């Protein structure tokens, strides 16, 4: 499973931070950040999701009020949002 996070879309509600510890608050930017990720496109960060964190990653994506988090399965199929 893979997660992509669009930092430009993020509005800093930090609901993802409460759901998965891979997301952290960046008060200086007023946005969340995705720990351990790499920038794959302008403002879009991605990383693999460990097996034991899949449920947390899905909850983080579902709670994002602006759909800045997208979850893909191992075949590249979009699961969430």
Could you walk me through the main structural features you see in this protein, from its secondary elements to its overall organization?
InterPro entries: Fe-S_cluster_ET (IPR051269). The chain is an alpha+beta fold and 81 residues long. It has a single domain (2-80), classed as 2-Layer Sandwich (Alpha-Beta Plaits). The protein is built from two helices and seven strands; from the N terminus they run βαββββαββ. It has helices at residues 15-19, 54-63; strands at residues 2-6, 23-26, 31-34, 38-41, 44-48, 69-72, 78-80. Strands 4-5-1-6-7 form a five-stranded antiparallel beta sheet, with helices on one face. Strands 2-3 form a two-stranded antiparallel ribbon. The protein starts with a strand and ends with a strand. The mean pLDDT is 96.
Overall geometric form: globular
Q: How many discrete structural domains?
A: 1
- Taken as a percent bin, the fraction of beta residues is 35-45%
Arithmetic mean pLDDT: 96
Radius of gyration: 11 Å
Give the low-pLDDT segments: none
**Class from helix and strand fractions:** alpha+beta
Report the sheet with the most strands, covering strand number, pairing sense and barrel closure: 5 strands, antiparallel
The CATH topology annotation reads as Alpha-Beta Plaits
Number of helices: 2
Q: Give the second-level CATH assignment, the architecture.
A: 2-Layer Sandwich
């Amino acid at each position: 499973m893979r997660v992509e996070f669009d930092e430009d879309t993020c509005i800093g509600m930090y609901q993802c931070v409460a759901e998965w510890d891979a997301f952290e608050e960046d008060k200086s930017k007023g946005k969340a950040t995705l720990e351990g990720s790499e920038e794959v496109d302008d403002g879009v960060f991605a990383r693999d999701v460990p097996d034991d964190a899949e449920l947390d990653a899905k909850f983080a994506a579902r709670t994002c009020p602006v759909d800045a988090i997208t979850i893909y399965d191992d075949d590249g199929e979009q699961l969430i949002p």
